[in-house]
Inverse folding.
């Protein structure tokens, strides 16, 4: 995943993924967030999608990650 909108940045995006209802552990390389799909089980797609939506759009507690408006 790469946020090219000038938004969160890779480290903040990875942190937001870990803060989702179903935490997603990802690594950052070359300003991209990498999710190893080999670690996913069948049926995990919806939880991953929800975590990505959460990470990109918030809401985030005040003082932590900044909230993003949907595109």
């Amino acid at each position: 995943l790469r946020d090219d909108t000038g938004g969160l940045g890779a480290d903040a995006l990875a942190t937001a993924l870990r803060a989702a209802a179903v935490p997603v552990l990802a690594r950052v390389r070359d300003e991209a967030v990498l999710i190893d799909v080999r670690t996913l089980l069948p049926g995990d797609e919806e939880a991953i999608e929800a975590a990505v939506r959460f990470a990109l759009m918030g809401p985030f507690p005040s003082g932590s990650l900044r909230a993003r408006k949907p595109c």
